[in-house]
Amino acid sequence: MSTSILIADSVAEGAPRKLLVRTVGATLWTFGVSGALPDTVLEIVKDDQTIAENDDWSDAANSGFIFNVSAALEALRLKPGRLDSDVQTILYLGAYSFRVGAKDGATGVALVGISKVL
After folding, report:
1. How far apart are CA 99 and CA 90, in angstroms?
2. Strand order in 6-12's β-sheet?
3. Residues 6+ apart with CB under 8 A from 64
4. Helix and strand numbers, DSSP H then E, in the chain
5. Quick one: which of 100, 90, 101 has its CA closest to 19?
6. Which are the contacts of 49, defined by CB distance < 8 A and separation ≥ 6?
7. CB-based burial, 48-60: b 16+ in 10 Å, e otherwise
8. What is the DSSP pairing of strand 94-102 with strand 40-46?
9. Which residue, 23, 33, 79, 110, has most beta carbons within 10 Å?
10. pLDDT above 90: percentage of residues in the chain
11. Structural contact between residues 104 and 6, judged by C-beta atoms closer than 8 angstroms
12. pLDDT value at position 53?
């Protein structure tokens, strides 16, 4: 991951939660957001260990699931081939960091969203 990153932290409490975590950069251009990251990379870290990561959501093995969950959650639908990142994961009790960067080290605007999957 690049040296210029956005870090969002969260603490999971109670029962494990299945989440969809996404970073949107490239798709923001379609909404007129200038300076959006052209190619986001997402990394989820717990206790200094990467537990999940993604670069280009539609290349993930579970991209169909991610697409369907996004529709069910009425979340921003990302088009296949766009260089945004999504991870479907289960978070257990503890503190987590969601790190967003750009594959090419670029800087810019990105959106981080965390949604509970039912």
Report:
1. 17
2. 6-12, 94-102, 40-46, 49-55
3. none
4. 1, 7
5. 90
6. none
7. eeeebebbbbbeb
8. antiparallel
9. 23
10. 30
11. no
12. 93
Higher pLDDT, 27 or 118: 27
Euclidean distance between CA atoms 76 and 70, whole angstroms: 7
Euclidean distance between CA atoms 25 and 83, whole angstroms: 8
Output the six-digit token pair for 78. 């990302």
Q: How far apart are CA 77 and CA 31, in angstroms?
A: 13
Report CA Rg, the chain.
14
Taking a C-beta distance cutoff of 8 angstroms, is the pair 40, 23 a contact?
yes
